[in-house]
């Protein structure tokens, strides 16, 4: 039995857990702590010095990353595998799949997000993805990826600018995989055709784009105006100006989701580090991850999902509760999960915590009904 204040309705509740699920919710008396659904990150490349795309990734590394993530209130995440050679992508997916099945921490991995290699080859939209491995959508190759992942790929980010993209998207969607548009230079027609074929998400809209765009039409307006697309955004304080986030939220409303898109330096101390993608990067005291050679260039996000929730609340872009929902319940809703959150029958993936000096402190994390030893 756990007790505390339901973060949404602010009522003290007592929660009975059985078989890893919430069995019953009744009135409680404990007002010492808040109870919240666990955070769920749909896009994360690494954490606490561990790179999920690293060629030498070990189970010990992954356990370390999972524990560090749990300390920030995460009870579920999708390791994100980015553009690479087909062999490297398959190797990474197969390794992560094995960890998911065999480790006691494996249940934190709720599927995989494949970002690439079917993205735009153009500088700007391509971002930091290696050009030599970018390729046009290939259903046979995707099935090989899916086989290596034990059918665990649940989101694939593609650019619909390629010929045949709509056919690829339709096949993915029919197989139950969510298709996201991202790292794209697609035109209005191609974006509409992608949504028509079943694409349902825009990956980190406003990033992975040209530095300068025609005022209209452009692929940001086109995706904003397409009601069938949900949206993920990186609210770390560096990737998007608050005004852009505000407009995105106004347009997409209940279809806006927070992701960290964190790289391995997230959760590390400020300092200068050697990056796998080449060159030195600096993590500043403020949490900005930038290239040492040109500090104007971001080298990825170093924020935990919880940091982005706090950024949203601190800047008044949303309340803390709304931001928490964008980072917990909404990803589940997007994935068509039937039962989630603080309700009877939902998996008991919960966070207990309280505010201390204006910051939210995670005190206890419960995964599948078990209190995690942090
Ligand atoms: Zn990206």
Calculate the mean pLDDT score and round it. 96
Figure out the total of helices: 10
Please provide the count of β strands.
Answer: 20
* CATH fold field value of the largest domain: TIM Barrel
The profile of the biggest β sheet is: 8 strands, parallel
Describe this structure in words.
This protein is of the alpha/beta class. The chain has 2 domains: 1-37 and 341-374, Urease, subunit C, domain 1 (Roll); 39-340, TIM Barrel (Alpha-Beta Barrel). It is built from 10 helices and 20 strands. The chain has helices at residues 59-71, 86-102, 139-148, 165-174, 188-197, 219-224, 242-252, 305-314, 320-326, 329-334, and strands at residues 2-6, 12-18, 21-27, 34-37, 39-44, 46-47, 50-51, 74-82, 112-115, 153-158, 178-181, 201-202, 230-233, 256-258, 271-274, 280-283, 289-291, 350-356, 359-367, 370-371. It has an 8-stranded parallel β-sheet with strand order 5-8-9-10-11-12-13-14. It has a 7-stranded mixed β-sheet with strand order 3-2-1-4-18-19-20, with no helix packed on it. The protein has a 3-stranded antiparallel β-sheet with strand order 15-16-17, with no helix packed on it. A hairpin with a 2-residue loop joins strand 2 (12-18) and strand 3 (21-27). Helix 4 packs parallel to helix 5. The longest helix is centred in the first third of the chain and has 17 residues, at 86-102. The relative contact order is 0.16. Residues 115, 127, 182-183, 204, 208 line the site of zinc ion. Zinc ion binds next to loops.
